[in-house]
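Q: What structure does this chain adopt?
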Amino acid sequence: MLVDLHVHTKLSSDSNVSPEQYLEAAARNSIPLGAICFTEHRLFPTDPELDRTYAELSERFGICIFKGTEADTDLGHLLIFGVTSALMKRFDLDGRMHRAEHMIEVVHGEGGIAIPAHPFRDSGFGARLDDLVAKVGIALSTIEAVNGQNSPAENERAIAAAEKLGLTMLGGSDAHFPTAHWFLTCATELEREIANVEELCVEIRAGRARPYRFPTTT
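A:
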């Protein structure tokens, strides 16, 4: 099952795209996308009307829609899935410069997953991965090793770091627009089918995931 773990809509300040536009693009693609994760910058939306919209779009297009967030930490951006009410009480997810080490440990304790995003591009995570893994242990089990907006060299460095540290490698498009340059460039391939974000966290925490690159078109 293919899941794009890193997509931004107009709820993020650097995108003007509706969720429906991404789903329309995915429906036109010959390789089926099983799920899409909307990971807005410094935002985890809780609007019931938005949840109803996501449910309607998911049913119409046959693609699961999951919510996450791209948090701002002292080491860089952190994709978080499995956001609970307890987690939202502990952290102001709209805020900036959370302490990455603490956030990773708390998210893991809540049953979620915290994923350093593009760790070798505009991020301090890459240089600190060794120390961070030593400090937090299994709470940091994965990184975004393949990001659709990275350079090949940045992805290669992330892959090498994951291999060295034994981390599960994931992929995400980091899409801000539904065009070929931004979207359906890469994703994460899960070994099992999932139906909700809780199952997504279980599969990633179990290491049953790997990066997937969509075939390029000319």
